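W.,

You were right to be curious about this one. When I first looked at the sequence I had no strong expectations either way, so I just let the prediction run and decided to look at it fresh. Below is the sequence, 87 residues in total, followed by the output.
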Amino acid sequence: MITRTRAAAVAVTVSALALLAGCSLPDGPAGVVVARAERTPPATATRPYFLTVRTVDGDRKDFQVYIDDYDKCSIGERYPQCKETHA
């Protein structure tokens, strides 16, 4: 069983590699934003930003987003509508 910390580290690494390879981030699942996080010190412009949503079935899902989407989506708002309505 992979621990949550290790799974998060793997997700960050995979996301960083995808960005370096020129890939865009996939959209996260639809749900209500329940948490927001910056996972590294704010000293770099490329730090990863994460949102956590609670889906319709009650699961919590963490996923990486661009800073623009992070800034647009506050706790309690519905994702992905929040990133589209604040454009």
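Here's what jumped out at me. The helical segments are 4-20, 67-72, 81-85. And, maybe more interesting for your project: The beta strands are 31-38, 49-54, 60-65, 78-79.

Coffee later to discuss?

I.
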